[in-house]
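Could you help me review a protein record that somebody else here produced? What it holds is a sequence and that sequence's fold in token form. I have pasted the whole thing underneath without changing anything:
=====
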Amino acid sequence: MSTTEIDQVTIAQILMLLEEEREKALSPREWQHRIAGYGYAIKRTDHGEMVTTLPHGQEVCALPVQLSA
């Protein structure tokens, strides 16, 4: 799955979910555990931190700097 296969509205919804969960979490570790429950993970790559799917690890989009842990 690449960003061309996911429409921009869906990406915006995913990022909004991640932001809401980040606000609820007490630590970056808890946040990553919370988003794993929704089927997402954060992966560090050569081109920055990426939102990926679980369990396949396919990149969805870049993680915005303001959400970086």
